[in-house]
Specification:
By secondary structure, the chain is an alpha/beta fold. The chain contains five helices and nine strands. The structure holds guanosine-5'-monophosphate (5GP) and magnesium ion.
């Protein structure tokens, strides 16, 4: 697989993002909420730079493709989310693609009643967004390729790889792959 972003570049950029986050929160408490499962490396690396009063929570979003749901409908599982009411939240995800997942998660968190909400993504695919969505922090803009590594998977594989790599394969498979993270979970939940 071809390396798109090597581990040392990721490390450097995550450090820069952490400096921005630290400056913006300026010592105020923050609850970092990671979107499972792709956020894990990004979250773990980012928080270790942050000298702030900090809580960590996790949230899961799965798209159901059952007969009674519209394709792409998101199911949000907040079982691992601490009480976020009245707290300053930084939502972290691995990649912003169409924007549907993050838009739905933001709506969910706002409905719960958070004090403030910012969003950080490690990657953002250029030209793929169908939902207007501007992250507050973005590591890298990348072309429309399917990427794995540094937390990102294909069928739950490759998450452990330290670089971000381009998964080779037929482009017509792109849509299935893009949903891979969510679909894999959906399969397990059935
Ligand atoms: P969105 O709702 O923005 O279309 O979907 C975002 C989610 O789709 C990401 O959190 C990730 O799970 C998955 N995704 C989108 N693009 C890629 C990609 O290139 N590689 C991997 N592994 N997952 C992706
Ligand atoms: Mg994801």
């Amino acid at each position: 697989m071809d390396i798109l972003i090597p581990a040392d570049k990721i490390r450097q950029r995550v450090g820069e993002l952490a400096s921005q986050v630290a400056a913006d929160y300026a010592g105020r408490p923050v609850t970092i909420v990671g979107v499972l499962t792709g956020c894990l490396m990004f979250l773990a690396d980012l928080v270790r730079h942050l000298d702030l009063p900090l809580r960590i929570g996790l949230i899961q979003a799965s798209s159901y493709r059952g007969e009674r749901t519209t394709p792409g409908d998101l199911h949000i599982d907040p079982a691992l989310l601490p009480d976020v009411r009245g707290r300053h939240i930084l939502l972290l995800d691995d990649i912003l693609d169409t924007g549907r997942t993050l838009a739905a998660l933001c709506e969910h968190l706002r409905r719960v009643g958070v004090a403030s909400l910012k969003v950080g993504v490690l990657l953002r695919k250029v030209g793929r967004q169908v939902v207007p969505f501007e992250p507050d922090y973005c590591g890298f803009e990348i072309p429309d390729a399917f990427v794995v590594g540094y937390g990102l998977d294909y069928n739950d594989e490759h998450r452990h790889l330290p670089d971000i790599l381009i998964l080779p394969g037929p482009s017509e498979d792109g849509e299935t792959r893009r949903q891979g993270d969510k679909e894999t979970r959906t399969q397990k939940e059935k």
